[in-house]
Design brief:
By secondary structure, the protein is an alpha/beta fold. It has 5 helices and 4 strands, in the order βαβαβαβαα. The chain has a 4-stranded parallel beta sheet with strand order 2-1-3-4, with helices on both faces. The termini are far apart.
Length: about 170
Amino acid sequence: MKEFTGKFNVQSAEIGIVVADFNETVTKQLVQGATEMLAKFDLENVDVYHVPGAFEIPFMTKQLLAKKEYDGILALGAVIKGETDHYDLICQNVASGVMNLNLTSNIPITFGILTTDNIEQAMQRAGLKAGNEGAITAQSLLEMISLNRQIKVLRQVVLIRKYKSLPIKLV
């Protein structure tokens, strides 16, 4: 049995971050946590794209996927529950949009969009008391980039083996 595990020490990766500016007090902390985590692993090639709100995250993520410049993308935001159904609609559609992109892309996309009942919960998850979700999401992205690279190498090995096993006819 073979086991594959993602590693944190990914070398020379290009990272895209899409962050919603709505609830900026929280999302600034998420970006800071993510970029600090990436810097710990000497990953400095990070581009941050700001969008107005969480609803716009899937669109911008799709645009970044089309550029084919990144090894992975982080989606960061904070949706805080209010008095209306707007919260549920945004959360469901953003999660669905990012998941659909993740399933159809060739690179990993990690989901660091907080969905909380109040600002206090959001601040806690952005590093006020406990861990920073931006940092955790960045670490997950590094693991997924590593696994993705391992799979690509395996595919190449399989293709080489198939190629070598083909009968060769001399003309």
